[in-house]
């Protein structure tokens, strides 16, 4: 129900009330309390609709603010990631269950849309050998920057 519908219903109710007052039996007047209660219900309904409209407007504003905030956070993360290019970072790598360090070669968004660093690291294998490997490291797994 819109505010216009509510206003029209209130106007219809008032027209009905005036008509009933004009044609009521003077010996049996209508119950004023019941009419006042119905009028109060219409007023309450009108206020509820206005409040609902205000809440919807607030939700739209919050959604726009959230989008703006997310955009600003993404720009800040991208700036941070670009500042890491060429630097040595420490990061946690699940496959090895430990922290590794390596040089950041590239910044990109992975298939899932997460900001990711391509990091080249020296990895020690269980047999004692070491190898240079490249890892795709989500930006939130970076634990620190080595100077």
Q: How does this model look, in words?
A:
The protein is α+β, with helices and mostly antiparallel strands and 147 residues long. It folds into two domains: 78 residues; 62 residues, SH3 type barrels (Roll), CATH 2.30.30. It is rod-shaped and about 110 Å long.
Mean pLDDT: 85
Strand order of the largest sheet: 4-3-2-1-5
Structural class: alpha+beta
Following the backbone from N to C, one meets helices and strands in this order, namely HHEEEEE
Radius of gyration: 34 Å
How many distinct helices? 2
Task: State the end-to-end CA separation.
Answer: 64 Å
Report the count of strand segments.
5
Number of domains: 2
Helix content: 40-55%
Biggest β-sheet strands, sense, barrel? 5 strands, antiparallel
Binned strand content: 25-35%
Describe the global form.
rod-shaped
Low-confidence stretches: none
Which descriptors apply to this entry?
SH3 type barrels; 5-stranded antiparallel beta sheet; single chain; alpha+beta; 50% helix
Q: How would you sum up this structure in a few lines?
A:
By secondary structure, the chain is α+β, with helices and mostly antiparallel strands. Helix content is 50%, strand content 29%. It has helices at 3-23, 32-83; strands at 88-93, 98-109, 115-124, 130-138, 142-146.
């Amino acid at each position: 129900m819109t505010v216009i519908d509510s206003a029209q219903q209130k106007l219809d109710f008032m027209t009905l009330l005036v008509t009933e007052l004009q044609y009521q039996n003077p010996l049996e007047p209508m119950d004023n309390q019941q009419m006042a209660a119905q009028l109060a219900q219409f007023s309450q309904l009108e206020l509820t609709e206005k409040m609902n409209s205000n809440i919807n407007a607030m939700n739209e504003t919050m959604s726009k603010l959230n989008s703006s905030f997310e955009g600003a956070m993404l720009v800040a993360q991208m700036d941070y990631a670009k500042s890491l290019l060429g630097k040595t970072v420490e990061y946690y790598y699940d496959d090895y269950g430990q922290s590794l360090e390596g040089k950041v070669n590239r910044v990109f968004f992975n298939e899932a849309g997460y900001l990711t660093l391509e990091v080249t690291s020296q990895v020690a294998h269980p047999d004692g050998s070491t190898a240079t490997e490249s890892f795709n490291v989500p930006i939130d797994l970076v634990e620190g920057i080595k100077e």
